Amino acid sequence: MAWWIHDNLPYASQFWFPRLAAFNLRWSANPNTLPSIGTYVTNPHTGDRKALVKDGVATLSLGERKVIVRPWLESLA
Fold first, then answer.
1. Are 59 and 50 contacting, i.e. CB atoms less than 8 angstroms apart?
2. Fewer beta carbons below 10 Å: N end or C end of the chain?
3. Which residues constitute the domain of residue 18?
4. Is the CB of residue 36 less than 8 Å from the CB of residue 53?
Protein backbone atom coordinates (compact mmCIF):
# COMPACT_ATOMS: atom_id res chain seq x y z
CA MET A 1 0.00 0.00 0.00
CA ALA A 2 2.93 2.35 0.67
CA TRP A 3 3.95 2.22 -2.99
CA TRP A 4 0.38 2.80 -4.19
CA ILE A 5 0.13 5.89 -1.97
CA HIS A 6 3.53 7.05 -3.21
CA ASP A 7 2.46 6.77 -6.85
CA ASN A 8 -1.10 8.11 -6.51
CA LEU A 9 -1.36 10.65 -3.66
CA PRO A 10 0.59 13.76 -2.71
CA TYR A 11 2.18 13.28 0.73
CA ALA A 12 5.10 14.52 2.80
CA SER A 13 5.84 11.35 4.76
CA GLN A 14 4.55 7.89 5.49
CA PHE A 15 5.58 5.77 8.45
CA TRP A 16 4.48 2.14 8.81
CA PHE A 17 4.14 0.10 12.01
CA PRO A 18 4.10 -3.71 12.38
CA ARG A 19 0.96 -3.97 14.53
CA LEU A 20 -2.65 -3.59 13.41
CA ALA A 21 -1.63 -2.47 9.89
CA ALA A 22 -1.08 0.99 11.36
CA PHE A 23 0.56 3.84 9.49
CA ASN A 24 0.92 7.61 9.72
CA LEU A 25 0.44 9.70 6.61
CA ARG A 26 1.48 13.36 6.68
CA TRP A 27 0.84 16.14 4.19
CA SER A 28 2.65 19.47 3.93
CA ALA A 29 1.66 22.76 2.34
CA ASN A 30 5.34 23.35 1.57
CA PRO A 31 5.91 22.30 -2.08
CA ASN A 32 9.64 21.84 -1.39
CA THR A 33 9.06 19.02 1.10
CA LEU A 34 10.68 15.83 -0.16
CA PRO A 35 8.60 12.69 0.43
CA SER A 36 9.80 9.88 2.66
CA ILE A 37 8.56 6.42 3.61
CA GLY A 38 9.94 4.93 6.82
CA THR A 39 9.00 1.72 8.60
CA TYR A 40 9.37 -0.57 11.58
CA VAL A 41 7.96 -3.39 9.41
CA THR A 42 10.29 -5.93 7.79
CA ASN A 43 10.07 -5.61 4.00
CA PRO A 44 8.97 -9.03 2.64
CA HIS A 45 10.85 -8.40 -0.61
CA THR A 46 14.22 -7.49 0.92
CA GLY A 47 14.10 -8.69 4.54
CA ASP A 48 15.24 -5.31 5.90
CA ARG A 49 13.61 -2.26 7.48
CA LYS A 50 15.25 0.42 5.38
CA ALA A 51 13.30 3.45 4.19
CA LEU A 52 11.45 2.90 0.90
CA VAL A 53 11.80 6.59 0.02
CA LYS A 54 14.40 8.89 1.54
CA ASP A 55 14.88 12.57 0.64
CA GLY A 56 12.46 12.12 -2.25
CA VAL A 57 14.39 9.22 -3.81
CA ALA A 58 12.52 5.90 -4.13
CA THR A 59 14.45 2.65 -3.70
CA LEU A 60 12.48 1.05 -6.56
CA SER A 61 11.70 2.30 -10.06
CA LEU A 62 8.10 2.81 -11.19
CA GLY A 63 8.24 -0.47 -13.13
CA GLU A 64 9.50 -2.39 -10.09
CA ARG A 65 6.78 -0.83 -7.92
CA LYS A 66 4.07 -1.83 -10.41
CA VAL A 67 5.23 -5.47 -10.25
CA ILE A 68 4.61 -5.37 -6.49
CA VAL A 69 1.42 -3.28 -6.46
CA ARG A 70 -0.52 -4.94 -9.31
CA PRO A 71 -0.95 -8.38 -7.64
CA TRP A 72 -1.89 -6.69 -4.36
CA LEU A 73 -4.61 -4.62 -6.07
CA GLU A 74 -5.91 -7.70 -7.93
CA SER A 75 -6.14 -9.61 -4.64
CA LEU A 76 -8.57 -6.97 -3.34
CA ALA A 77 -11.09 -7.56 -6.15
1. yes
2. C
3. 2-75
4. yes
